[in-house]
Amino acid sequence: MNVLVLLASIIALNTANTTMAFQADPGAELKIVYYGAKLPDLTKGALDNYSAQRAYPCYGVIATEEAAFAAIHPDGNRTVQLWVEDTSLQAWEGGQVLCVNCKDNYYPLRVKIYYKTFRDQDMIETWIETVNEGKKPVTLTRFDSGHLPIRYDDVWISTLYGTWANEARVNSEPLTRGWKMIRNIDGARNSQTSHAEVMISLDGKPREDAGRIIGAALCWGGNYELRFQTNDSDYHHFFAGIYPEHDNVVLAKGKSFATPHLALTFSDSGLSGASRNFHRWGRKYMLRHGDVERRILLNSWEGVYFKINEAGMFQMMDDIAGMGGELFVMDDGWFGDKYPRNNDHTSLGDWVVDTRKLPGGVGSLVKAATEKGIKFGIWVEPEMTNTVSELYEAHPDWIVKSENREIVQGRGGTQVVLNLAKKEVQDFAFSVIDNLMKENPDIAYIKWDANCKLAMDCSNIAYWEGFAALCDRVREAYPDLTIQDCASGGGRANWGVLPWFDEFWVSDNTDALQRIYIQWGTSYFFPAIAMAAHISATPNHTVRRTTSLKYRIDVAMSGRLGMEIQPKDMTEEEKDICRKAISDYKRIRPIVQFGDIHRLVSPYDEKGYASMMYTSEKLDKAVVYWWRTHNFYDDHFPRLRLSGLDPDRKYKVTELNRLDLKPLAYEGKSFSGRFLMESGLEIPATNNVKASLRSDWSSRVLLLEAE
Ligand code: DGJ
Is the distance from the beta carbon of residue 505 to the nearest atom of ligand 1 less than 6 Å? Predict the structure, then answer.
């Protein structure tokens, strides 16, 4: 039994290492008593020490308190007072679901507050479901997924912010008096400029390997708001939910509305500990095919952009197959009849192959890939159209648009969003995938892009409900297909979207140095198996930086490795280096993709280098990354102390992707986990390579194997 019922009204939910306790007295508000490290001996006496807080505060009765929920009743009354009626606890295979069944003490409005435990991942998801039990419509004006009171202290939060090509930058700051708000109203790409996740450090400035951390992730692809209120009380109050101001929910008689889930985790092993919980839960319960190794691919975008042609695709397939890759993905530019897709100004929605570019159609590409022993994938953007397209000419009413206003057009000056709230639009978007798959059943991978915000007034909730219905249908028809979630780069890295997808494109910025920062932040909440990281050309197409091929490889190898380059422009020596890297990646793929993360030295600390590692579940293997982040002559770095190893086992060290003329002094030698964690390894500041490979970028990848 995983629940501890202390008194009739006190309920403690336990996961392997955490406890969340409530006071649920019938005829009173639900109170939260405790959330943190497991307290198996929680007694009534201990509970008397806590001042229980409102678990899900509603607006009205105490109008001065910030609320997670607010509604307007049919008579105009704007107050809600939820009293517990009863509670129920049900087991599911990974834990339990607590339902606290509450009802307004005057109006016919029911709110069920849920808490679902994931025992082995130390995760608790919370959400609410509201039911209008009256005869007339009720309007919900605020409907957060959850609220968590956090005891006042030196509490810090780490959030992710950014923009296109600079996603997931880490921002850490103390919670001071007043409000901190993270709001995203892009509508379609809710992780481009901010993220719906946060790490809350209870012990001051967060550390990677120590300190108490609460992690929170709102599993929702649309508009959201995360709010922290630090007032004159003893608590910081955290709220998270759908951004309600564009989207009041009107509940007709008998209708219900369920919010997205807010996933909460607690770790006393610092940020990396909380990340490991998110990764394990994500791989097991959220990400599509989270237990299946991802293929190493070449994507055509940075190699040829819109210049798609059959011979060029065959050549790229030959090249990636020749380097040991397993998949080729043809990106944008392959479609359009009346309006050929030669740039981003036209053609979205006209999903017919452009036979001027590809005379043999998609079929000849799939066949060629099969003959070369690799799989084939293709890019689509099913939610979008351009005002210059045959689709828009036929269905101008299918787009999201404000009545009586000019259309706001996005990418290329003509891109608009199809209104997925309409069933016929969902049917069309489904047909984009369905037609491709019916005609070419061997397509193994779809890159699903989305490059436009929802710039015009619409119900964001209705859009995302339409998106969910579409994705459900796609997954029902094509359960095994690998689908990448891409949205102008990393615009849809969110746990509300990923259950339909296998991975996401982390950023359109493939510069290795900036990727270290972007991938670092992304790894707070998302596992490496989901993070597409590609080796690209230099000078980098976004930042124009020139880095060494080894450096680019060593960074990309810390995620789901791929290539984003024109191999035709590479030298034979460069291809050989990539061939070796791909073969080395195959050795470490299970450790990277299923392992536990330990971030060691943050690039954000600007120490001149950054380092992180993954350990295998059985602690018999690990892979360590060390990247220099700036280059000053006479730099001195400390020994690199590792983490997460078995102190009593001995690990043999092998350098991967080695180009250095001489092996490391400890190449092939073995050290105890204790030695590696306490004393650490000496990492030379530069790579000692032959003259033609010298650059100002240095990096190392080390494989550790237990003897
Ligand atoms: C944006 C994506 O992030 C890129 O990788 C590429 O697919 C382009 N769209 C294609 O238009």
Answer: yes
Bridge partners for 172 per DSSP: 158
Say yes or no: CB of residue 331 within 6 Å of ligand 1.
Answer: yes
Ligand 1 pocket: which of 301, 329, 505, 509 to mutate (most atoms within 8 A of CB)? 301
What percent of the chain is predicted at pLDDT more than 70? 98
Q: Which three-class secondary structure state does DSSP give residue 331?
A: coil
Reported as a single tens digit per residue, the pLDDT across 545-574 is 999 999 999 999 999 999 999 999 999 999
pTM score of the predicted model: 0.97
Q: pLDDT digits over 209-238, tens only?
A: 999 999 999 999 999 999 999 988 899 999
**Whether residue 208 has its Cβ less than 6 Å from ligand 1:** no
The structure tokens listed for 577 are 């280096």
The verdict on domain 297-598 having CATH code 3.40.50.450 is: no
Instruction: Kindly list the domain boundaries of the chain, sorted by start residue.
Output: 3-286, 297-598, 600-706
Rounded Cα gap, residues 608 and 621, in angstroms: 27
**Closest C-alpha to ligand 1, atom 1:** 488
Return the structure tokens found at 543: 């930042």
Task: Tell me how far apart the alpha carbons of residues 482 and 397 are, in angstroms, rounded to a whole number.
Answer: 32
Which one-letter amino acid corresponds to residue 287?
A: L
Average pLDDT over residues 519-526: 98
Whether 486 is in the pocket of ligand 1, judged by its Cβ within 6 Å, is yes
- Report whether CATH 3.90.950.10 matches the domain 3-286: no
3-state SS, residue 602: coil
**pLDDT tens digits for range 365-400:** 999 999 999 999 999 999 999 999 999 999 999 999
The DSSP secondary-structure symbol of 346 reads S
What the block records as the tokens of 86 is: 């009863």
Query: Encoding tokens for residue 216?
Result: 């929170």
59-67 average pLDDT score: 91
Architecture of domain 600-706: Sandwich (2.60)
